[in-house]
Amino acid sequence: MTHPDTRVATETLDPADWELTAEQAHRMLDDMLNHLRTIGERPPWQAMPPEHIERFQQPLPLQPQPLDDVYASFVEEVLQYPLGDAHPRFFAYVNGTGTVTGMLAQMLVAGMNSNTGGAYHAANYVEQQVLSWCKAWMGYPSEASGVLTSGGSVANLIGLGVARHVAARKLGVDLRRNGMQGLPGRLRVYISSETHSSIQRAVEIMGMGSESLCVLPADADFRLPVDALEQAIADDRAAGMIPFLVVGTAGTTNTGSVDPLDAIADVCSREGLWFHCDGAIGAVASLADPVRLLLKGMERADSLAFDMHKWLYVNYSVGCCLVRDAEAHRDTFSLTPSYLRRSTRGLSSGEIWFSDYSVELTREFRGLKVWMMLKEHGLEKFARVIQQNIELAAYLAGRVMASRVLQMLAPHPLHIVNFRYIASPDEAHNDAVNREIVMQLQERGIAVPTITTINGRASIRACINNHRTTQDDIDVFIDAVVSLGDSLTATVTA
Ligand SMILES: *Cc1c(COP(=O)(O)O)cnc(C)c1O
Fold first, then answer.
1. Cβ neighbours of residue 315 under 8 Å, at least 6 residues apart?
2. Is the pLDDT of residue 22 over 70?
3. What is the pLDDT of residue 253?
4. pTM for this entry
């Protein structure tokens, strides 16, 4: 025990020399700005040599090292081998790109280090402001509730959680108290074969079991078939199950297809089911005129999940879930132990505590980067850049269709294009050649598409999700696909 007359040491983790740290900090900032300015001059992705990976097997550091040395390790060991998302020829998955302002905002957030779980402080109001903007933009009423999340997966989990809570309440069951055991039968969730895996994961985590999923085979355009949906609901009811939720997707991951959201909303309102819309990819593209029509009905969803770190280009990670019935949203998650008791004055006041609307208590201040980016550019500029991505995808599809050796494999309603190189009449050979084309594009640092499967065939999939991508990037990519295909046809065997 420390004697009352001795003083406790005053060691802190702040810099010993603030001037030196300021120089180091300015260098890091300059380096990152330069990194972004010159990003297109480097390969999007490179494999790490095995000896490089061994550098991540060092013993736990017990003693201090100068920040300069630590930063040098970052530059050498980490920065050199990015995933590549920010690069104009990164076409894999549906990854975000970030912006310079988003990067700076992240620094400001980390500097403030304000937990946005609750309490009375400005960061909370920034997040509320961002949510109000989202409601207006997505056609939701201002009384709806919402919460920023780590991404689409958690936003989907939140939407599905509220849906299940409400379904149980309708059956007179207090789900929070009794759990699934209190329900009189199996709950059923309707999705399509193109629905994102995070929906299945949410259903599994919630303890419903994947047998609660009714997976409807998507139609020829990769959309949820509404006739089959109605039939499945009727069949399930006849079998004693409890239909409660339909998930419609605004932009599927494989092809960018958009489910018939308006028709799904009709079915849900007729049948008394919850309509959750997974708009992780496409919801923000409602800014672009042609997409707005496609998304008609999205605004009727009871809950809407979408990502801002995908097609809104915001730095990782931030998504959003909006819920039309704010009271049901709060009722699903709110829990107030004594150490979080609210007051009418002081720090513990403030009417919205986001921890009442999510599975997180401590929350990163995710709203600032969105708030700053939206203010800096304005929604109209985002609309133009999103539209540009759609036009680049159309240009890519046009080049595919104009080529004798390339073939489209799916429609491209948004910014995702699926195509392949035709090497021979032998389908197994085609699959092998296309897989090898993608490997070589990645490994040679030319471009980073991925391989997916469309109607059983290997497909080169490119998602143009980057505000930095230009028509020249598409040309470099397509020219390389064709020349690699030409040279690999003879050497690759099935
Ligand atoms: C990416 C994606 C998700 C999951 O979002 P994360 O931000 O990766 O958690 C959900 N649905 C769709 C359609 C997606 O493309």
1. 96, 98, 99, 102, 103, 105, 106, 309, 369
2. yes
3. 97
4. 0.97
